[in-house]
Amino acid sequence: MPDADDLSLARWEVATLTGRLRSVEAERDAAMRERDRTQDLVAELRRSRSYRIGRVLGDLADDPMRTARRLLRRRPAHPPRRKPAPGPVPARVYVAVGLDRDASHALVRALRQRILVDGDHRPVVVTDQPALRGLGVPGVIVEYLPDPATWSRHETGDWESLLAGRVAQLCRDHRAARTVVVDPRDPPTLARLLEPSRY
């Protein structure tokens, strides 16, 4: 029969193991709560408009034709076809959505200067800036697309698909060799536009 010291030691070991078990369970529960919170944040981010726009623009930059064909199938409306611009110089589509008025005008001016220095392509600017609507700039084609808020007030359907469809249509109509997505936080200057490895 075990003596009192053995029983006391056994009780202490059981209490220690129980405490450790409860600590591990508490850590596990905290980790599961953190995992659930992270999953909720990721799901909320993926549902956001800015994430969807960024993803579409990123896919367009990586592979514009394949992405545009994939998204074109769910496009809500068919924009009018444009006749291809004449001339052997290839076009380059600049997706410049989200820029403010001054940055949009600066980009168009820089592209105009760019082709005066080196006319190796015809710039086609896709913009959601109303100030550029109907703007005529020699050598630069400006294509206006309503911003998401304006579009949602007048039309139904997915704005990202509209953007992808319009870009795909412009690539076909103008036989564009490249698509460039302009970062609205850091639009390119003339000096950067003249860097052949970037633009």
Q: Report the principal-axis shape.
A: elongated
Give the mean pLDDT.
78
How far is it from the N-terminal to the C-terminal residue, by CA? 88 Å
Element order: H for helix, E for strand: HHHEHEEHHEH
Q: DSSP strand (E) fraction?
A: 5-15%
* Broad structural category: alpha/beta
Biggest sheet, strands in spatial order?
A: 3-2-1-4
Helix content: 55-70%
Which sheet architecture does the biggest sheet show?
4 strands, parallel
Quickly count the helices.
Answer: 7
Model regions low in confidence, pLDDT < 50 over at least 5 residues = none
Radius of gyration: 28 Å
| Structure summary, number of beta strands | 4
Compact overview of the structure:
The chain is α/β, with parallel strands linked by helices. The chain contains 7 helices and 4 strands.
Descriptive overview:
It contains 7 helices and 4 strands; from the N terminus they run αααβαββααβα. The chain has helices at residues 4-47, 49-62, 64-72, 101-117, 148-154, 159-173, 190-193, and strands spanning 91-96, 122-127, 141-144, 176-181. It has a 4-stranded parallel beta sheet with strand order 3-2-1-4, sandwiched between helices. α2 crosses α3 (64-72) and α3 packs across α6 (159-173). By secondary structure, the chain is of the alpha/beta class. The chain is elongated. The N and C termini lie far apart (88 Å).
